[in-house]
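Deliverable D5.2: sample structural annotation.
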Amino acid sequence: MAKLYFYYSAMNAGKSTSLLQSAHNYRERGMRAILMTPAMDDRAGVGRISSRIGLDSDAMPFAADNDLYRHVRQEHQRDPVACVFVDEAQFLTRMQVLQLTLIVDRLDIPVLCYGLRTDFRGEPFEGSQYLLAWAEELTEIKTICRSGRKATMNARLNAEGERVFEGDQVEIGHNYEAMSRRDFDLPRASPIPYVEPE
């Protein structure tokens, strides 16, 4: 039975590497896999998934208004699809996560999504929020903070390597550092206006 999977982590944990390895396994066995990536993420070029260790692959770029279920259904009718992979899944819309559930439930095709849970303020991304709610399988890909603690948060850095606390949720091109929640200092980063008592 097909399932919707969400593999999540902080930055630089190897999500894209894991996706590319899994897609290679399907292709090596003669099975067709569709790879998708947000068009807005053009760091390696539009429609490219690239890992820090040098693996890369072409992928279908998608925008926020693309119907992923319609696309996969048409592709599946043309040539059977064994699996769908989505990189940077935090950038999916709520509607697109719903469409991914239809790929699983109506077409019986497994969908594997890889992405971040939260942004540089500790706030959930829309795509991640609904993947966490609707996926059958949730798997954390672990990484560590420079303090040695488990990293779960993503600090945004400017060009000088200094921490940034303001800005749009999505800004491609910044550098990020994976941090533990303690080192991230969630009360300082969060937009929730809580003042700690003396």
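Annotation notes: The chain has a mean pLDDT of 91. The chain has six helices and eleven strands.
The annotation will be released with the project's public dataset once the embargo ends.
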